[in-house]
Amino acid sequence: MTLYALRLAIHYEFDRPTGAGRQLFRILPADVPGLQRLHLVRVMLSPAPAERVEFTDFFGTRVIEVAMPPGLTTFDLVLEARVEREVPDPELDMSPPPAALVAEIAACRDVAHASPHHFLAPSRRIPAMPAVARFAASAVRGAPTVQQAIVRLGQALHRTMTFDAKATLVDTPPDQAFAQRRGVCQDFAQIMVGGLRSLGIPAAYVAGYLRTLPPAGQPRLVGADAMHAWVRAWAGEKAGWVDFDPTNACLVRGDHIDVGFGRDYDDVAPVTGMLRLDGSQTGSHSVDIEALDGP
């Protein structure tokens, strides 16, 4: 178990005073039984919003809804939290052979938020992508189990793709990122989700935070950690959901902090909504995650 201190800061600046608007923030760490526990959370907004409410969406992600008053020239959000994350022991691969997964999905009668049925079909941001489907079929050929297929595809993407923060934008289609073999964690995750769905493996897009470690001998830089994305795939009735991070070619363990999951980026985007603007807007965000020795 590791206890983390998490701090997220979001800053907006506007050339001219804004009109009113409304924003949705999906930034709060989740409570995940047996895996992640939220001990403390504080969200500070400046200036104070005209209205602030919280709700939980269909997929179980906590959402902060803020009504922005008119006349803003700046806006700041600061999240401070304490999150306890378990480091699960490596488990035996209990997933079935890939050919048997169709029957297990058909036998599942659950239609709640975590049902595999929600994560099989293409979605708005992750349509059918023939080139990705061919790549996925080649990458997993001969995999003896569904979990091995998940891992093989994630590792193959990691070998094929290059992480490049300047290669894509938030609305770059995943098939375009795949064609150029470059992108960020959002692209890696959405490409892998699309590849798994093409194989008949239910797959979700997961948003959260990643604690990063500095190179040996270098100090930890405050604010250098990041919001992150990875993949959650359904590996059958016994194995359940398996989380894999294709950007880092690893099963998700203790350095990842869950916020939420959905069909694609749209379902768990950290900031959505609208603002009436007359002029340009600039923004920035920083994330700092520190492992704590004590409570």
TrEMBL record:
SUPFAM superfamilies: Cysteine proteinases
Residue intervals of the Transglutaminase-like domain: 177-248
SMART domains, A to Z: TGc
Entry superkingdom: Bacteria
PANTHER family, per database record: BLR2979 PROTEIN, BLR5614 PROTEIN-RELATED
Identification of the protein by name: Transglutaminase-like enzyme, putative cysteine protease
InterPro entries reported for this sequence: Bac_transglu_N (IPR013589), Papain-like_cys_pep_sf (IPR038765), Transglutaminase-like (IPR002931)
Biological process terms in GO annotation: proteolysis
GO terms assigned for molecular function: peptidase activity
